[in-house]
Amino acid sequence: MSADVTVLGLGPMGSALAGAFVAAGHRTTVWNRTPGKADPLLRKGAVEAASAGAALGAGPLTVVSLSTYEAVQEVLRPLAGELAGRTLINLTSGPPVCAREMDAWAEHAGAAYLDGVVMTTPSGIGSRHFLQLYAGSPTVFEEHRETLAALGDPVYVGADTALPSVYDTTLLCQMWSTLTGWLHSVVLIGADGPGGNVTATQYTEVANRWMDTVRFFMDAYASQVDSEQYPSGDFPLDLHRATMGILTHASELRGADTGMPELFTALTERAIAAGHGNDSYARLVEFVRREGRPGAAPA
Ligand SMILES: NC(=O)c1ccc[n+]([C@@H]2O[C@H](COP(=O)([O-])OP(=O)(O)OC[C@H]3O[C@@H](n4cnc5c(N)ncnc54)[C@H](OP(=O)(O)O)[C@@H]3O)[C@@H](O)[C@H]2O)c1
After folding, report:
1. Whether this model's pTM surpasses 0.90
2. What are phi and psi of 138, to 5 degrees?
3. Are residues 122 and 228 in the same domain?
């Protein structure tokens, strides 16, 4: 039996979430402050509630997708007396502190609470290729994991409900830096010159396979960062530095912006100047940390 689900908020994201629940066979009750937004969902089989309170009362599980935590509080505060025994899963984006406050408030109202973030745009909802991150009680997460799988790939990140918001920012950092590196490479390989004129599509076929190697390094370096030990094997920072020089030179020759190679060259040179030329690339973590912060590298 598919669980009943309520969705509060039918912006682009809330509508996609509700649509995925309907498609997966869940009896889905929806509510939106401004009327009319439920119409496409009603045609697919969702049920519209006349008020947020009626939507909440339609079943034990409510997924919230509003623009801000302030909006969530505005909608839920008047319903505090009706929350006992229910589960709220809040997929509204916001700062970590708001997630913790919401968690404490929900607990006081007697509701189980998971906070979450959606790591895709609405068009990705319903695909197992995209993540949603959740935090809160592991028992509550496990209870609803199967229902949440209708939305994508549900990942539990820990008990502290601030975590999804923190992961959101850090995963986007990783996405932007990876995509910028890829774009830089596309510019280099597509420019006129020896070996040039490779299309972005041709390059990406090889680059995607290279990502397996990058993943291998990340796995190996994660334990080095955790243990603060940086054995280099056969790829020390001195060798990285020499190879980065080739990249900067090629970027200049081929008219690419040199800001990105200069950024990681500068970090590498600081580490080498501090005597870490024989360490692995993971040693740079100490130079990414700002000076004066706990664990920062010496100036
Ligand atoms: N869209 C994306 O690509 C994306 C990706 C990841 C995460 N998110 C997050 O998902 C959440 C929802 O985003 P969205 O794209 O659907 O659009 P949105 O503009 O962020 O949210 C629109 C929804 O919030 C409701 N709302 C705003 N203020 C309200 C209030 N005071 N009381 C009641 N309802 C209120 C709107 O109701 P009305 O229709 O009545 O205005 C509508 O249902 C946001 O936190 C967003 O950051 C979005």
Report:
1. yes
2. -65, -30
3. no
